[in-house]
């Protein structure tokens, strides 16, 4: 049942009580006891394993998380249709594992501190919205070959 999900802000579950959406956009407030600006985000491998089969929407945008990298385990979330991690000051490269998210239609990584080359996104045939803006050290060739217009 979805009873387990009631009372959890930003969490949506299906009829079986499995998490289908994590929407914590602009919702992580800075205090002395939790993650906030100048803190990093660390998600355990278990987080991804628990949500791999059911999570469709993952939105952590606008939380100004700093010095965090985008975990490579995000590639295990094969049911994702939307991934929004913009405006978080993520550092490092975009994981190549994003190409495993073949259901992804909406990808927002803009306004971070990402660097390196943009990995191939040609396997993301469902992708209709891509935001990579304001990542000054991001480069390379963005190939959209094989994708629908």
From TrEMBL:
InterPro entries membership: Leu-rich_rpt, LRR_dom_sf, PGIP
- Tell me if Transferase is a UniProt keyword of this record: no
Q: Identify the domain of life.
A: Eukaryota
**Where does the record say this protein resides?**
Cell envelope
Kindly state which keywords UniProt assigns to this record, in alphabetical order: Leucine-rich repeat, Repeat
Q: What is this protein called?
A: Leucine-rich repeat-containing N-terminal plant-type domain-containing protein
């Amino acid at each position: 049942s979805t009873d387990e999900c009631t009372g959890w802000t930003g969490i949506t579950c299906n009829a079986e009580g499995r998490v289908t959406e994590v929407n914590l956009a602009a919702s992580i407030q800075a205090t002395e006891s939790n993650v906030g600006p100048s803190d990093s985000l660390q998600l355990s491998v278990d987080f991804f394993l628990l949500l791999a089969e059911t999570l469709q929407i993952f939105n952590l945008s606008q939380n100004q998380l700093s010095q965090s990298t985008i975990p490579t385990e995000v590639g295990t979330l094969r049911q994702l249709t939307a991934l929004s991690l913009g405006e978080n000051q993520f550092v490092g490269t975009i994981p190549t594992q994003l190409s495993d998210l073949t259901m992804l239609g909406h990808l927002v990584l803009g306004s971070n501190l990402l660097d390196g080359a943009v990995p191939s996104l040609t396997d993301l045939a469902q992708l209709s919205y891509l935001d990579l803006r304001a990542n000054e050290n991001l480069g390379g060739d963005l190939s959209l070959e094989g994708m629908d217009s």
